[in-house]
Amino acid sequence: MDRKPNRVTAMQQIIDAVQLEFPIYQEDTFKCGPDNTCTGCPKKLMELVDTELTYWQHEINTGCTPTFDDIAKFGKMCKNIRRSLVRNNRIPA
What we know:
Elements: H1 7-21, H2 42-61, H3 68-87
Helix pairs in contact: 1-2, 1-3, 2-3
């Protein structure tokens, strides 16, 4: 039986997955779409993800342990932002 990861490992796994899947550091990530035809604003959402990723990576690096609530909120935020990015054709489904 596999053991569940501790809270730091769980948060780091979410961070790693988001960094791999989201186009956070690509050149056109923080630009608005043509004719402002976006559903939700991918630019603002990516800025939010970047801020949260930086914050949580810093917290983990300094030895702070996230709570279960922190992990759930961060995971839900990333899931919802991913859905928006798919709707705006920023990432594949």
